Amino acid sequence: MVVGGKPGEYIFRTREIDMGPAGDPHPKTTLATLVVSGAEQTKLKLPDVFPELQDLRTATPCCKRTFDFSETGNGDQFCINNVQTDMSEVNTSVRIGCVEEWTVNNCSAENHVFHHHQLQFQVIKKNGKDVPFTGWQDTVNLDFRAADKAHPNRCKCDDDGNCTGCTCPTAEDPHGSVVVLVPFLDPVIEGKAVYHCHIGEHEDNGMMQVISMSPDAGRCEAGTPSNIDRLKMSPKDRALCKPSGKYKHHEDDHGDGDDDDHAAWERFERDLRASWCRPAETRATAQANYSLWQR
Ligand SMILES: [Cu+2]
Asked: Which residues form the Plastocyanin-like domain (predicted)?
């Protein structure tokens, strides 16, 4: 909320942000100019009581998953758990009625921003440090990994931002990791949705996956590729991004004339629409799971 001051012009500025050795420059800039003019308006009163949110740390998670955000050495192509977006896959399948614990890792030398559709989550750890409960959110920054004296293996980058040998965060070197509790509780979320990096260029070049949320799903089904067994892999293997060679956004942005992905997007959007009109009995199961969790 913005409260206007005396008549005049006010500049709304962004801060400068360091996106990391492989990131694009983001100097401070003017986001908007606000103009205050005219007769004074009656002040709006803020509500005295806000809806109460539950601290999700009281729930026992149904499942623990790991999501590794990585990119190719030249920073052109982007992956989650080594692969690029494929709209014909379901990468993660969750049961409605469950709270899950997700560890979301930045395995590259530039910032990423984790975003989940349809719900909000609670951040409980960032870079290995506990985060106190202040509420829920739907985006969170994943800090870039860069080599320093104490951590020479995080990523080696040249002056042009080309990086090699990156590793994903580990228990010993958690910088770049965020742990969130995700409440798959409200029956209204049933169907397919996506989670992705909120930086458009990253999302459009592979850093997005499909999630299916259903009251009938297993409690902890592995994703495609698995988002459960990743910690058995080496931190270096987890940081690889393997371009599929076929990935494009729903329009032919990259100009190679291949519209395979366009058809996949159309199928995906049709599925999404179908999932909004779910049968009454499925809604009833979802509602039952929801009330079970609330007891
Ligand atoms: Cu990103």
From this structure: 70-213
Helices (H), 16-93: none
CA distances from 175 to 28, 65, 121, 127 (A): 25, 18, 20, 4
How many angstroms is it from 197 CA to the middle of ligand 1?
Answer: 5
Find the 203 Cα to ligand 1 centroid distance in Å: 7
pLDDT of the residue at 123: 98
Place of tokens 């409200």: 186
The rounded radius of gyration (Å) of the Cα atoms in the chain is: 21
Q: How far apart are the first and last CA of the chain?
A: 35
| d(CA 285, ligand 1 centre) in Å | 36
* Å from CA of 283 to ligand 1 middle: 35
| Other Cβ atoms within 10 Å of 125 Cβ, number | 16
pTM for this prediction: 0.83
Q: How many angstroms is it from 198 CA to the middle of ligand 1?
A: 6
User: Which pair of structure tokens corresponds to residue 56?
Assistant: 């999700």
**What's the CATH number for 56-247+275-285?**
2.60.40.420
Q: For the segment 27-85, what is each residue's pLDDT rounded down to a tens digit?
A: 999 999 999 999 888 888 888 888 888 999 999 999 999 999 999 999 999 999 999 99
Measured CA to CA, the distance from residue 56 to residue 136 in angstroms comes to 9
